[in-house]
Design a protein that fits this description.
44% of the residues lie in helices and 18% in strands. It folds into two domains: 158 residues, Rossmann fold (3-Layer(aba) Sandwich); 120 residues, no CATH class. The longest helix has 23 residues. The two termini are 35 Å apart. The radius of gyration is 21 Å and the shape is globular. By secondary structure, it is of the alpha/beta class. Helix 10 packs across helix 11.
Length: 285
């Protein structure tokens, strides 16, 4: 049985994540009281396999008791023999403020004396223990609902014996570093096509930009060094039963250099018996 705990910041997409799991046949419960979690685990273990195959529960800052008792609760679940994974969703503070402004919903930690931004920051502090215990972090700042559902489906597949998913994500530093990245590589030191007028409006996938990079020895060295780093450490992460690793490649605007190198890396690792994904945050958003 796959047993997932879905948590994260309010407004980051937990309801969408639970919906994605429900579509996969998971039995989902949102905001289960903390005191009931160990007992619920016992019931799951004793239930017929054809009755509940996989399950997910949503836990967030509304459930203060769970956050306070997290270490003991997770230990108790493990001792019962139920293996769990925590999926943690987060987003940039400004994005969360915008989402709440658009939906006009009330943040769970706001009241007459607590402003929205203060509630978001307080919640982030409260959820640090859950964040540290998570098997997978997803930054939804620049993610559509459909993209998030796809990421959650990939995460769920990682618990069924599927190969490790290795995501290469290009991004622009001027738009912020991805919060869910496991590794971040800065490639702003290599030649920039932006300063060539005929290449400025193209992106790292265009044949003319590809030819520009293929002619640069420093670009080849940068790509090779990142390849070697990943190849060196990937087996150790696989031993830890990681199902998902995000490698973020950043340049200034996320249009040329990071796109090209992310594509080259994905092409190289496709022959490594991994589930390879590529996302170009700035040019696909």
């Amino acid at each position: 049985m796959n047993f997932f705990i879905v948590s994260g910041l309010s407004g980051s997409g937990k309801s969408i994540a639970l919906q994605a799991l429900e579509d996969l046949g998971y039995y989902c419960i949102d905001n289960l009281p903390a005191i009931l979690l160990p007992e619920f685990a016992k019931q799951l273990l004793s239930a017929p396999k054809d009755e509940i195959e996989n399950c997910a529960v949503g836990i967030d800052s509304r459930n203060r008791g769970f956050l306070e008792a997290l270490p003991g609760t997770l230990k108790e679940i493990t001792e019962l023999g139920l293996r769990y994974k925590i999926l943690f969703l987060e987003a940039d503070e400004n994005v969360l403020i915008k989402r709440y402004s658009e939906t006009r919903r009330k943040h769970p930690l706001t009241d007459r004396g607590t402003a929205l931004v203060e509630g978001i920051r307080r919640e982030r502090e409260l959820l640090v223990p859950v964040h540290l215990s998570a098997a997978r972090h997803i930054d939804t700042s620049h993610t559509t609902a459909q993209e998030l559902m796809g990421l959650v489906r990939d995460f769920a597949g990682g618990g069924t014996g599927a190969p490790l998913t290795l995501l290469f994500e290009s991004f622009g530093y001027k738009h912020g570093t991805p919060l869910d990245a496991d590794f971040v590589f800065d490639v702003r030191c290599i030649p920039n096509p932006y300063w060539h007028e005929e290449l400025r409006d193209l992106d790292g996938k265009h044949p003319k930009v590809v030819d520009f990079f293929d002619d640069k020895e420093s670009v080849a060295r940068m790509t090779d060094h990142i390849k070697k780093f990943i190849e060196e450490w990937l087996p150790d992460f696989q031993k830890e039963n990681r199902s998902y690793i995000t490698v973020a490649i950043g340049c200034t605007g996320g249009q040329h250099r990071s796109v090209f190198i992310a594509d080259r890396l994905s092409q190289h690792f496709k022959g490594h018996r991994l589930n390879i994904q590529v996302r170009h945050r700035e040019i696909n958003s």
